[in-house]
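User: Show me an example of a complex going from sequences to structure tokens.

Assistant: Sure. Here are the input components:
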Amino acid sequence: MDALKQFFMTAPVDPAVFAQSLWLIIALPLLGAFVCGVFGKMLGRANVYLVACAAVAGSFILSVLAFWAVSHVEGGSPVAMESAFSAGRIRYAIGYDYGTWFSAGDFRVNFGLMVDHLSGTLLLVITGVGFLIHLYSTSYMEHDEGYWRYFAYLNLFVAAMLTLVLGDNLVLLFVGWEGVGMASYLLIGFWYTDNAKAWAGRKAFVTNRVGDFAFLIASFLLVMMVAAFAGQANQANFSQGGNQGERYRAGLVEKGPLSFQALENLATALPVSTDKAPGVAVTLESTIEKGPLAGFTFGGVLTVALLLFLLGAAGKSAQIPLYIWLPDAMAGPTPVSALIHAATMVTAGVYLFSRMSYLLVLSPTAMVTIAVIGTATSLLAALIAFAQDDIKKVLAYSTVSQLGIMFMGVGMGVFWAAVLHLVTHAFFKACLFLGAGSVMHGNADETDIKKLGGLRTEMRWTWATFLVATLAITGIVPLSGFFSKDAIYHGIHHSHLAGYEWAAGAVYYVGLVIAASTAFYMSRLYLLTFEGKRSPEAKIAHAHESAWPMTMPLVVLAVLSVVALVYALPLMPGRNGMQPVMENFLGPVFSNAERIAARGGLVELDRSVPKLGDYIFAWLVAVSGGVVAAFLYLKFFPSKAGQPAPAWARGVRRFAQNKFYVDEVYEFLIIRPVKTVSIVLFKLLDTLIIDTVLVRGTAWVTARVGSALRYVQTGDAQAYAAVMALALLGGAVYALIQVLQ
Amino acid sequence: MVPISYYLILAAALFCLGMFGVLIRRNALVVFMCVELMLNAANLTFLAFAKQNGDFTGHVSAFFVIAVAAAEASIGLAIVIAVFRSRGSINIEDMRTMKY
């Protein structure tokens, strides 16, 4: 055991040396995207597959090395990184700064990359699941003519997502944030000749832009807040985190205000009030003295910035009010849905808040909003999923719902559990989506689960892996989904946000309903697709099992979604007894957030481990949903076949099937008014004033004046001479008058 | 000694004669001669002022004007001959084709 531990704690490459090569992790898929996109058609199908898969595989190997490097312990002291902002070193992290990207005045952004335990975990998920999905795609896209375009986009996505998690400042994160949005847009509209699919891509893009706008504004607010803080804080502030004011200001000059370290040190040096930290000049309650934000309190600005970040995250991670694009994003190829719209990109919001956990714990208002938004989204999506018949739509709403659960976790301060759920969700949801793709591939692209059925015997690998993943997402012991979801729920139930004591209970009990609903609709999906008899409406009589490049990733993901449960087991020694592996592992990342929360008292984070009774209760909730679904779809509905359903049932079903008319409400409340205003502005401002009056008006006046004045040109030289003589006369008269006066 | 104003009045009279000739005569050759008259009126003014100031700047200008007048007369007469060859007339009223 000790030898094994020693093996994992000794990196094969010196971390300080490896840190300089971090850029390669991003560069490999980027190069792959370039080669596939520019030379893809020339290279041919097999070479494109090779380049695309090899790029991601290489990136995966580098990620493993990076992950290894951040776990490196030498002589009892873990690997650590110099901080530009304080004398202390950042433990369990490596990073490298490649120099200034751009600067203007005091503002500066560096091209710096950093790996710690949080981004290391995400690196592995992105490149690992990404590689499996690349492999799967080689078989899934075997008949598609646009294969080179597809793999170029897919590699581009991986590169952008890696930028998002590797960047050590908000601006670089935003570059990745926009990059994944673009790749997502390109891939949703991959079959752009189909109008509906092209529109789905556009919808995703526009919806995301709303969020990105909020993200930018929030970043600007943080820049101004950091500047105000650096100007007003005194040494007592910085002593809070054992730091020096000069050191922090020097760091700002060197790395810029949007670097995560700048924000982390700011959070450490910003106490809640003066009673807790005597002598400090700046607290959350003190007002900003100078600049555009003068008059607002630090706490207020922070809360507003975090709420704007929430809107940004809601766009990317499909939460209310911007979740509507994700179900439509299923227009893209199924592996894309698995990679981008289930496993990685949509979890960017969870990553963002986990990354900024130290700011979050200073604002219970922002936290409770995140938790409530997550809960509402999760419940709404689960209810909509009840009545969807499209296999991918059910999975899409299920993704929205699971992301809501992660937001609940982040909002109530259970960061490590949210990240764990992110990882396990990446495994089982990717497995489900790839399974759905396999089902479609073997059934002539049929997506209506009412027209499938009985695939259990015909597609054995797909069936087995889909079953495992379904059990994982419904939360059945002993699969990873159960443990990660329960870790979130347990944390929610026992955490407290100052001023929002009702939140813990409310979010928890609604969460139970969500868990039962998840079990219900996932069981329904599974039963209708794989159990029972084959539907008479099926497109082809017998389904065929997919080739090995498609089933192999399924098996790997199914195994992972079982094995990942290890991370939720309390095996590691912590401060208060044993703690879950993942919590222990992510400890260095969230330790500052915990310290700030404990010091400020605004947020009380619970660190207890679920007891056996909690587990049994959670298990019963999940099973109850599954049993109801089994009863309804195996016994009740088949026995009632042929009889019309009662009117109320049909009404409810239609309401849910039409997604609670949210799209229609948005159409009526937002899109129509915006369109109307746009049309008025277009007609009035653009067509009338700019086009008609200004552009064509200028030309018209010039032409009219010209055609009037041309009659002056008579061709008579003596007439011209007469004009000159008159002018001379005028000049002479003027001169004479001047002289006489 | 003759006062300078006499010269200037004479020059102005010559200039006006020339100008009215240019404006009202129809014969292109006469118009040319009137142009020469105007140029020489200007010369006379230059010389009058030169004499008054006692330097030679005015003389230099007068020589320039004579040179320009020679060039102008040669080109002008060539044009008149060309017009006469193509139209058989040197009446200015027949030369109004370059118009709107």
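The lines above are the inputs; the final block is the predicted structure for all two components together. Residues 118 and 355 of chain A are 8 Å apart (CA to CA).
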